[in-house]
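ping. complex inputs:
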Amino acid sequence: DIVMTQSPSSLAVSAGETVTINCKSSQSLLYSGNRKNYLAWYQQKPGQSPKLLIYWASTRQSGVPDRFIGSGSGTDFTLTISSVQAEDLAIYYCHQYYDIYTFGAGTKLELK
Amino acid sequence: QIQLVQSGPELKKPGESVKISCKASGYTFTDYAMNWVKQAPGNGLKWMGWINTHTGKPTYADDFKQRFVFSLETSASTAYFQINNLTIEDTGTYFCTRGKMYNPSDHWGQGVMVTVSS
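pong. complex structure:
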């Protein structure tokens, strides 16, 4: 199975800061046939189900604010949240759908 | 709008069975597979497998091959997930999610909390 390694595991931020969450896969998620990276990001708030934010590594799901930016290719990916707002406090998971689905362990975003 | 509505929380004893439902609405049920994902208390997400809603064929992840059963009631746009011979380690929240092969799940059920305790 493809192992997804996220860092950091938690992050304390102040409102208005920019944060970066990293995700590394144990093998490339880039499919040569269509040049797409099979990597998504989810946001999970307490007591809720995960919400899809980003897919194909950098495509925002409909309705997701443009302060959420996904980037990266191959085995190294990043979720950047610019100007963090209180409503962004949640756990963020990266997820590969290239092979049997696997998720990263999550990054908990907290307020300082 | 697209919704996946799951059944309510369950409290079970070790050795018992539990069956969870996931009712889909707002789309054609057979156009998307149904995945099942486990979240143990305080832990991350683990994909358990999926069921082809067109053929009814289930596929189980390696850790979920022995006591777990995915099934459908297509006429009711409902997917089911059963765990037999429950153990304490089965405690967790179980989500159904719709998806297509080689695509991320774009809609999730609200989750069902299953508690196994003697």
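The mean pLDDT of chain A is 96.
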